[in-house]
Amino acid sequence: MNSGMPKMPLSGLILILALFTQAAESATVIDNFANRQSTTNTVNGPVNVSGSNLSNLQRTLNSSPTPGGTTRIFVEDGLLTVGNSSNSTGTASIFYNFAAVDFTAFANAILLTTESSDASYQIQMIANGTSMLSFQNLASVAIGSPSTIRFDFSQFSNPAAFKNLNSLELKLRGTNAAWDADFSQLSTVPEPSVTALLIIGALGITVGKRQKLVAV
């Protein structure tokens, strides 16, 4: 007998709940790039950064051009902008130090969104000065089509560093000269809570029983 209840596929209900619980568990913001800072061919910092979920966060910018060229780093209004002149394939370093924290208690990866990049580029991360994520090759990104990159803790040479993390460094460089790119919020990927997983499992069982009754 059909009860007249509107039907929704089990997968659809679980997806809706998963999205809801994921949104409810906010990511830990490392840097939202709101505090203005810039440097060209030199070091700037450390400066205190507000808007981060980490305590006592400080940021240091270091632009290292190839000889005779220019590498610049600019932070303002939610964007990290990196650029090289036509005769430079230099490296931009963004170094953070902060009060030690166990990242593994609330996350398993780091996210960085590329808002635009006019050429392919490379990114490296270093945790606690020793645990390294080797340079990753990434494709260019068109304006208006941002790309979010995920870096799992397991990709680093010593994932255990994230259990007592007090520094993180990003190194960015273009594969060609005259490279320009914009990046937005740097954050962590939140671990799903036990409560969320239990709710999703219970929903699956409940909806499965309902569908069997409706089919009778």
Can you walk through the features of this model?
The chain has about 220 residues and is of the alpha+beta class. It has two domains: about 1-25 and about 190-215; about 25-190, Jelly Rolls. The chain is built from two helices and 13 strands. Strands 1, 2, 5, 6, 8, 11 and 13 form a seven-stranded antiparallel sheet that branches. The protein has a six-stranded antiparallel sheet with strand order 3-4-7-12-9-10, with no helix packed on it. α1 runs antiparallel to α2 (about 195-215). The longest helix has 22 residues, at about 195-215. The protein is globular and about 45 Å long. The model is unreliable at about 20-25 and about 195-200 (pLDDT under 50).
Q: So, the CATH homologous superfamily of the largest domain? A: Galactose-binding lectin
Instruction: Summarize the biggest pleated sheet.
Output: 7 strands, antiparallel
Fraction in helix? 10-25%
How many structural domains in the coordinates? 2
What is the helix tally? 2
What is the CA–CA distance across the termini? 6 Å
The Rg value, from CA coordinates, equals: 22 Å
What overall form do the CA principal axes indicate? globular
N-to-C series of helices and strands: HEEEEEEEEEEEEEH
Task: Describe, in short, the structure shown.
The chain is an alpha+beta fold and 216 residues long. 17% of the residues lie in helices and 44% in strands. The chain folds into two domains: 1-25 and 192-216; 27-190, Jelly Rolls (Sandwich).
